[in-house]
Amino acid sequence: MEILEIILIGILIGITPGPVLTMAFSQTLIHNRREGILLLVASVFSDFPIAAASILILSTLSYSEIILIVISFVGAVFIIYLGIRNIFPKKRNPEDNAQSAKPYSLRKGGIANLLNPAVYIFWMTVGGKGFLDMWNKGVVYGLLFLASFYVFNLGSAVAVIFLADRFRGLLASKGYIWTLRILGIGLIYFAGKMVYDAVLMIAK
Q1: Is the pTM of this model over 0.70?
Q2: How far, in Å, CA of 167 to CA of 161, rounded?
Q3: Where are the alpha helices (H) located in 88-173, listed in sequence order?
Q4: Cβ atoms of 154 and 15 closer than 8 Å
Q5: What Rg, from alpha-carbon coordinates, does the chain have?
Q6: CA distance 158 to 6
Q7: In this structure, how many other beta carbons lie within 10 angstroms of the beta carbon of residue 157?
Q8: Nearest by Cα to 102 from 172, 196, 27, 164
Q9: Where do the structural domains in the chain lie, given as residue ranges?
Q10: Do 95 and 30 contact (CB within 8 A), yes or no?
Q11: Which of 17, 118, 152, 200 has its CA 20 to 30 A from that of 184?
């Protein structure tokens, strides 16, 4: 996996209106921008143990070429799913997630991320395999993978929150929707590359 792919995936996951980002929108609209950003930061910190456990499990299985092929195919399906979901985005109302007057942003962000199955699927397939590929090139490459992913993932999500605070109709805007669609097409392209690499491993 190349750095450009890591950055693209980080950005796409960051701006996709899934459970965490939608809750961050809700915190921003109901409370303030700070609460929305706190929720995002909490979700990133809760991501670390999931990523570490997934990478540890994958590292023990990575010696099996069959396992790598299966992971590549499953990861490609997951990435295609993300791509299609962004080409045809669903309309969401951030205020639907409002449940109380108190923000509890850190708690909400951590719990939402820990209970999101997509996070586990990502790190057990695309994220974990991508990290190990880079780690095998050298420690610096592995650290660069993590830094690139989290910086662009959190950075893009925070940027969306800033825009949402400034322009309250952002989720329904054509510019936002078309950005999702273009990135979704890019993800499907990278999923195709993953399938191609898996086929090459089978053909050996």
Answers
A1: yes
A2: 10
A3: 105-114, 117-124, 126-135, 139-166
A4: no
A5: 17
A6: 18
A7: 26
A8: 27
A9: 3-203
A10: yes
A11: 200
Within the chain, how many helices (H) and strands (E) appear? 9, 0
Please state the three-class secondary structure of 41-77 as a single string: HHHHHHHHHHHHHHHHHHHHHCCCHHHHHHHHHHHHH
142 token code pair: 């592995």
Burial class of residue 134 in the structure, from the number of CB atoms within 10 Å of its CB (0-12 exposed, 13-18 middle, 19+ buried): buried
Residues 126 and 75: their CA atoms lie apart, in Å, by: 5
> Residue with structure tokens 């299609």?
84
**How high is the mean pLDDT in each 10-residue block of the chain (204 residues)?**
81 81 79 89 92 86 71 80 77 52 80 82 87 91 93 93 76 72 78 82 78
Q: What is the pLDDT of residue 182?
A: 79
